[in-house]
Design a protein that fits this description.
Blueprint (H helix, E strand, L loop, with lengths): L2 H25 L35 E6 L7 E4 L5 E4 L3 E4 L5 H12 L8 E7 L4 E6 L5 E4 L6 H7 L13 E6 L2 E6 L2 H5 L14 E4 L1
Parallel strand pairs: 6-10
Antiparallel strand pairs: 1-2, 1-5, 3-4, 6-7, 8-9, 8-10
Amino acid sequence: MKPGRLLVLAFFVPSLFCPAQVKESAGKPAQPAPPAQAAPAPAPPALAAGAAAETYVIGASDVITISVWKEPTLSGSLLVRPDGMISLPLLGDIQASGLTPLQLADQIATKLKKFVQDPNVSVVVSQIHSKVVYLMGEVGKKGPIEMTPGMTLLEAIGSAGGITEFANAKKIYILRDEAGKHEKIPVHYKEALKGDSALDLVLKPGDTIVVP
């Protein structure tokens, strides 16, 4: 073969293979990108613990959960009635108000021994409604607030967002029903704010603080 023809073939042969390579590359599916790593789901918030069984005293309107081991028909959630009683199958009415959860559990277990061998009873306060005080008038947030142990006047007003600019701090008072008596207790708010602890009165469940 003449050298001229060899040069022509050397020029055209590579061009014959290039389209095939392009076609082969186009025919291959694109490699999928690796999936993004999913962010771990946040842990659910921890459930609030029930009222301390050793110290909390059950009151009217509280909701308690009673569990009797292996006795589902005797277990469940109950609302403490205004008279302080609850009603249970087999046992009827039982006084709950005024007792701690442990005391109530012991009382129920003792009564159940007539019907159940070695009853195992637990009581948990699931909702607290009896330990509240109320705020009315010129405060940041009106209505009931949940009491903390030993809550004082200033703590309650602070929990409600404090008094407003329109409040008459000299005429604040507490309404209290105790032993069938209706009391109106005057409050020395500004003096209590200055640090006189004797005037920062300790509240009782059901007290109503009125801020004119």
